[in-house]
Amino acid sequence: MTDRVQYAEDDPRPHIITLRELLADAIEHACQDLTKNGQPEEQARLGATAQVRQAGT
C-alpha cells in the first residue's frame, strides 16, 4: 500500500491523481487489446484511443 499525502477536503489534487491512474489503466488496457485483436479496424480504433489518452496525460 502506498502512503498518500493528506490534502484539504476542497483540494482537487487527489481527484487529479485518481484520474491520472484511471487513464493510465485505460491506456494499458487498450494497448493490451491491440495485441490481442487481429481485425485491422479494431486495431486502428484501439491504437487511436491509446494515442489520444497518452497525449492527454
Kindly, what is the distance between the CA atoms of the first and last residues, rounded to a whole number of angstroms? Answer: 23 Å
The best one-word shape is elongated
Average pLDDT works out at: 79
Total number of helices = 2
Structural class comes to mainly alpha
Instruction: Tell me how many strands there are.
Output: 0
| Helical content class | over 70%
Largest sheet: none
What would you say this structure looks like, in words?
The chain is an all-alpha fold. It has a domain at 28-57. Helices cover 72% and strands 0% of the residues. It contains 2 helices and no strands. It has helices spanning 13-36, 40-56. Helix 1 (13-36) packs antiparallel against helix 2. The longest helix is centred in the middle third of the chain and has 24 residues, at 13-36. The model has no long low-confidence stretch (mean pLDDT 79).
Write a brief structural summary.
This protein has 57 residues and is mainly α. The protein has helices at residues 13-36, 40-56.
Strand and helix layout:
Blueprint: H1 13-36, H2 40-56
Helix pairs in contact: 1-2
Keywords, separated by commas or semicolons:
57 residues; mainly alpha; 72% helix
